[in-house]
Write a sequence for this structure.
């Protein structure tokens, strides 16, 4: 397919405004501010079928529509970009921020206009030092050319943009914990209701979207919702998608394809096949480490929200981890469990999600777990359980 989200990542100096403008950058923002209302932009995104790329897969346009239509001067609207890419196996948002920051900014500004926000915070994972610096430089360029700040592009709308660096807490990828952290408190999740659109950061109407989600918006504005619907699997799994491929494959990396790419095509064509030809596919975690695993015989499936749900797992953050026959599934599960443990009671609103991989591993690879119990040894002969840390 035509490269859309990744069209600039290989260009020299793609992080700079001049390069982004040379391929039509910020024309979508100019179009929206000159000929669209916030409600019209929201409706176009809703019509496109764009679903959140951070994990939940909720309609982006519908989420925007929950925001109040009027702005109380005492309760400004905030737009938060979730760039706290903490899910193991996931590295797509970092690619966009480091290689095409102005695409992220333009999408963020379009989303902010749609929800009538006057402030954007890009909440970025603390370890992403380089990405944060790239974004800061891009924001400065955007201010200098009138794409951010007061009376953007001569319009009546003003919006400030800030990068806020987190401290490396996995929990802050959950949107309400992200808000608590942004406010300066510990990153504890909040109970819902109230939902962020009614009472979010600092008690004001707030919307939170993932980096990849907003990166799609300039193309929807530029080409229209009908074009977006023509990519992928209409009506519920539309548009281009970034897939993170890691593990036992010859060519790991970030791959762009239409939503609904067959899993086998990603592994054996784009990814070049299994790393060792004599070690066949054993299992795939399709959406980051918090989703249920698939056995090799379950991998004839399309990589979209609904197809994977029908298999009892999730697309999640599209962080695919491929395991070959040498993998000890007990050791793999032990590593995942170690990553998710919290001493005492979990504070994570997604605590149940951490249990899902454990259930799926034990259910689907019970013989290996039973062998470890009975023989005190690994069925694959590669790992001793007591050596897993």
């Amino acid at each position: 397919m035509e490269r859309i989200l990744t069209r600039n990542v290989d260009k020299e100096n793609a992080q700079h405004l001049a390069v982004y403008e040379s391929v039509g950058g910020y024309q979508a923002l100019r179009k929206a501010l000159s000929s669209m209302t916030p409600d019209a932009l929201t409706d176009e995104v809703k019509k496109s079928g764009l679903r959140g790329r951070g994990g939940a897969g909720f309609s982006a346009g519908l989420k925007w529509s929950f925001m109040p239509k009027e702005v109380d001067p005492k309760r400004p609207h905030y737009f938060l970009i979730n760039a706290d890419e903490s899910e193991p196996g996931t590295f797509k948002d970092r690619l966009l921020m480091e290689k095409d920051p102005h695409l992220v900014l333009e999408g963020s500004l379009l989303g902010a206009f749609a929800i009538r926000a006057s402030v954007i915070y890009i909440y970025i994972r603390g370890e992403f030092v380089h990405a944060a610096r790239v974004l800061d430089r891009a924001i400065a360029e955007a201010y200098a050319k009138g794409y951010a700040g007061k009376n953007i592009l001569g319009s009546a709308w003003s919006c400030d943009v800030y990068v806020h660096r987190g401290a490396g807490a996995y929990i802050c990828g959950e949107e309400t914990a992200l808000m608590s952290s942004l406010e300066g408190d510990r990153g504890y999740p909040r109970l819902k209701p109230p939902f962020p659109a009614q009472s979010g950061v600092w008690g004001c109407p707030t919307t939170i979207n993932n980096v990849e989600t907003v990166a799609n918006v300039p193309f929807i504005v530029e080409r229209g919702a009908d074009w977006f619907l023509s990519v992928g699997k209409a009506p519920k799994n539309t548009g281009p998608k970034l897939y993170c491929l890691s593990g036992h494959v010859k060519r790991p990396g970030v791959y762009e394809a239409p939503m609904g790419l067959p899993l086998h095509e990603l592994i054996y064509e784009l990814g070049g096949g299994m790393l060792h030809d004599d070690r066949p596919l054993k299992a795939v975690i399709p959406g980051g480490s918090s989703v249920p695993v698939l056995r090799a015989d379950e991998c004839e499936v399309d990589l979209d929200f609904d197809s994977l749900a029908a298999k009892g797992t999730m697309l999640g953050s599209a962080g695919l981890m491929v395991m070959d026959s040498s993998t000890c599934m007990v050791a793999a599960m032990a590593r995942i469990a170690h990553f998710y443990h919290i001493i005492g009671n979990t504070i994570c609103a997604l605590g149940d999600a951490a249990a899902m991989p454990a259930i799926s591993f034990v259910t689907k690879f019970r013989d290996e777990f039973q062998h470890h119990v009975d023989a005190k040894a690994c069925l694959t002969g590669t790992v001793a359980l007591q050596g897993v840390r």
